[in-house]
Amino acid sequence: MPRGAGAAGPSFDQWIATFRAKALAHGITDETYTRVTTGLQPDTTGLEAIHNQPEFSLQLWQYLNRVTSD
Fold this sequence. Notes:
- The protein is built from 5 helices and no strands.
- By secondary structure, the chain is mostly helical.
- The chain has one domain.
């Protein structure tokens, strides 16, 4: 499984290459795997959104005052 950005682990391209064996073992042809993974790039927008959540970007008291209700 791919790891998050900044984590020690394989690059996305390395992960794609390693995952090939699993796909082939599940009946995906080499031709199909190559066709659908060529040029594939990870979508990191979810990771960026996680880091911009108020829980992580505000001080505790700012968070309590702005985000929580009485």
